[in-house]
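[INFO] parsing input record for TYPH phosphorylase
[DEBUG] input buffer:
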Amino acid sequence: VPAGPNRGAGCPKPGRQLSGTGMDAPTPLPTLIRKKRDGERLEEAEIRSFVRGVTEGTAQQGQIGAMLMAIRLRGMDAGETLALTQAMASSGRTLAWPPAWHGLVVDKHSTGGVGDKVSLALAPALAACGCKVRGTRRWGGDRGVPEPLCPPAPLPQVPMISGRGLGHTGGTLDKLEAIPGFRVSQSPEEMQHILAQVGCCIVGQSAELVPADRVLYGLRDVTATVDSLPLITASILSKKAAEQLSALVLDVKFGGAALYPTQESARELAQSLVEVGTHLGIRTAALLTRMEQPLGRAVGNALEVLEALECLGGGGPPDLRHLVTALG
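[DEBUG] output buffer:
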C-alpha cells in the first residue's frame, strides 16, 4: 500500500494536527460507552475526554475495557480513528528534534508475528549505512579513505517507540530486555543524545511518551480486543505522531503466525494506517507480508536477539535478511 493521496471520508485536511487533550467539559464515561455500544459515532471532544480519563487514572479499568470492547464490536470511522490517534499522541510529550534533522526522522513498525525480530536488525543497519554524520567528520575520513570535496548530506535518524508482546506475538522491548542491563525506558533528552551518537534508538512508552497507549496496550491484551482495526491504528500511529516523524514504513503481516489471518483483512488495516498516517502529516507506506510460519529460525527473546546479530553480520536466515532489506 504505497504512500499517496488520502482515501477516506471523514478525516480533516492532512497535516500536523496533534490536537491536545484540551479542556473540554468531560462527558461521563458510561455515557460514552453506551453511545459506542449502540453504534453511534463519538465526537472528537468525547474521544479526548475518554483518553484524558485513561491518562489521568479517573477511568476505571472495567470502564476502559468496556469501551475497548465496544470499539472492537462497533468499529470507528476514519474521523474517529484519527481523533483517537491524535488524543493518544497528545497524552504525553511530543518529541522535538534539532532543526538540522528536519525531514530526516524516519521509522519502521510491524504489526507483529511469531519470530519477528526485524526491528532489531533494521534500525542499526540503517544507522551503520550512515544515518548519522557526527560533528564535521567527513565520510571515510577516519578510515584513511580520501575525503570527498563536500561532506555528505545528513541522513535519516531512526527513533523507534516499540511495544511488548501482544496476543501470541513477541514484543521488541521484551527481546531487548533479554540483554542484561538493557534499559528500554529513556527520556526524550536521552533519546536525542542516543540518536546524535549512533543514529538509532528503540525505546518503550513511558509516563512522558504516549502514556495513554501504555494503558490501553496492556488492557487490549486481556480483553480480547487485540485485533481491533481502529485500536491497532491508533496504537501504532500515536507513537509515531509523538516521534514527529517525516516518513514511516509499515510491515503489515497476515497468515497463521500473524494477528490477521487473511490478506484482505491485512490490506484493510494497511489502508487505515496509510490514510491516518498521511492525515497526520507523515509520509506513510505499508508492505503486506505473508507470515504462515515464524520469521527466521529462532523463537524466544534471547534467541531472536542472537539471530538479529547474525543478520547484521551478513548471515542468518534468508527470509529475515530479505525482509530487512525490503523494508530498508
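[INFO] The chain has twelve helices and five strands.
[INFO] shutting down worker
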